Amino acid sequence: MTTLAYLIPVALLLGGLGLSGFLWALKSGQYEDLDGAAERILIDQGDKPER
Amino acid sequence: MALEVADAASALPSIHEIKLASRALGGDIHQTDLSVPAVHCGGCIQTIEAALAKLENVEMARVNLSTKRVSVRWQGDEVPPFFATLSRLGYQAHLFDPEIHEKDKTLSELIRAVAVAGFAAGNIMLLSVSVWSGAEGATRDLFHWISALIAIPALAFAGGIYFRSAANALRHGRMNMDVPIAVGVSLAYAMSLYETINHGEHAYFDASVSLLFFLLIGRTLDHVMRERARTAVNGLSRLVARGSIVLRDDGTREYVPVAELMPGMRLLIAAGERIPVDGDIISGNSDLDCSIVSGESAPKTVSAGTHVQAGTLNLTGPLTMQATAAAKDSFLAEMVRLMEAAEGGRSRYRRIADRISALYAPVVHLAAFATFLGWMIASGDWYRAITVAIAVLIITCPCALGLAVPIVQVMAARRLFEAGVMVKDGSALERLAAIDSAVFDKTGTLTLGLPRLVNVAAIDPAMLAIAADMAAHSRHPFSKTLAGLGGFAGQPKLESVSEYPGCGIEGTAAGSTWRLGRRGWAAWKARISGKGTNGGTVLTKDGVIVASFVFEDALRADARAAILKLNEQEVSVQMLSGDTAAACREVANLLDIRRFVPDLLPSGKVERIETLATAGHKVLMVGDGLNDTPALGAAHVSIAPASAAEIGRNAADFVFLRESLLAVSLALEVSRKAGGLIRQNIAVAILYNTIAVPVAILGHVTPLIAAIAMSASSLLVIGNALRLEGFVRDAPTKTVPNDGRSNSSGLAQL
């Protein structure tokens, strides 16, 4: 029973972390161009990064 | 190819037009959004971004591969030449309207709701598993309390979508699937909370949250699918002018947006531009392509005094015209009004899901109430009676029913998307499945609105080569066709070629004067001698006819096959056209269409469709022109090709991006299959209820049984919907163009 007292908060915290990470990624526009992101990794960007 | 046709007919947008379509981002920075349908790989991204970034004043260029768009940020007053740059690289670009670009709020709300509901459902389910496997006493209470807490944000955030929709439906005295969902979820939560407070055994937090999660997934997929289709359609080129150059009384020229054009203004229309508003020509000669406005396939010669309609394309010479109507009174606006007035079958149509829920919700709610009464009478224990009644509501919460329709429609829309057919919304699929007659427009739909040279064999190749050389200097549709037939190298070299708008092209070669154009103009010797007064296009050498050309409208690819297929599918086909009877008869004979009506005005098409509708037919309208738009609105369901005018594309339920007309029969086939699957799915959902409800009424339902029953029925329904993939797998080979046209179907690869 006492283990639950910290295990459950830890589990919820980790889950919540994942959720907020997803929401942040969504908000910062990382899901706007999934196809493009997959291709961009192959592009040599030179020394001037875009955005 | 149809896309290219539409594009080739219009010139690059003017600098003014680009400015008008840009957004100011503060300072002197502007952002212009372009739709570039041909972007398809990482290489394209790099080429486009590098080339645009090199231009002067361009601050940033970014390609979005998913939506096939490029946004360019630039500064200063000078618009950088990005259209020229893109077309040099081989990419066709269209301006994109800033207002459409607004972020999709609904989608992000849905995705966020799915994320929250998924998080809550996962965690609550974990806790529920411990309860089911025997947690007792204080531990169980603790788990219930935590579940109740986690469920609150899920209900508020994810459930809010359903609560709002249900409230909206009830306020308008209607019933939709969201009403029983909202009632079930909130009652389940309330009862579980009561149980938790009283250290009870059964809490349904898992059921209410996972129900929301499943349903939200279906709803989000549905939305994503529709949005993809809409984005693809919005990315097509515009066929209506955004503005025009106005010639002021003091001689200055100014670019004015269409909405601000007033009657009496003098407008300059360059060759290749569309007429923005109705008006009269003051000076200049040219040919107008009216195909998209009236359905006439042959270009019309205009000169001073001619009345012109908004939307027609100026082909050969510059024109000065005087506006006689503002944009809101022009032909285009008239079509929109007619369309709104005609909006018949589709606004009255009630979706299958709504029709079912109108029956389902009262039955379920009455059953729950009867259960409550029954248990009250039988046991007199109001707590037990309420618990069982709510268990009935939970078990009948239409999880499977809520997924039964949308999931099939998502699969069908996806299937059509791959074949280049965009579905604007799910109800369109339901309506298409019900049709029994199809009405086609002629020009631009059954035909490409592009002339084809009929008598190639009868023409001397040397003459054809000279004609092709001359024709390369003009943008008249006949010239474009001829220019494409060149290739013979021995012809004399042309000097000084000039175009006479409305007449033809004149050039000199090896000392003689050649003319290509209208018979009466080109063959001036024949005219004097009284011969050959009839029309037609001829090539003359010093006034003597050396070759004459016969053109006819080229049929759209697979038009005949598509009509045959539709006949097989037991759909009666008709053709309604604004073109002449002779032109219609020819096409009708070629395509084996028995019924056709020529010379129709836009309102005439609507009347025809309404007559059919009153006779009890469900009519599919396929058309592309501005004159078809009211008919597209009036029909039960409508399909437009990608080359259609914007308002036509917006009015139509389906837009097909490839040239082949087989898209129509494919859409019909898929929608009918989908209709069958929807009925099966509904049957599955009802079967589930007939088994589960008696169990619930007898009071044997526990949270575990509810969770298993609901997930099982949902999975069954989803699995059944996936069968649509297998059903029509054999079809795509027929719709994909098999020659080297894949380049033009770049959009369809989206």
TrEMBL record, chain A:
The chain crosses the membrane at residues 6-26. It comes from the Bacteria. InterPro entries: Cyt_oxidase_maturation_cbb3. The keyword Membrane applies. Pfam families: FixS. Keywords: Membrane, Transmembrane, Transmembrane helix. NCBIfam families: ccoS (TIGR00847). This is Cbb3-type cytochrome oxidase assembly protein CcoS. The lineage of its organism: Bacteria, Pseudomonadati, Pseudomonadota, Alphaproteobacteria, Hyphomicrobiales. The gene is ccoS.
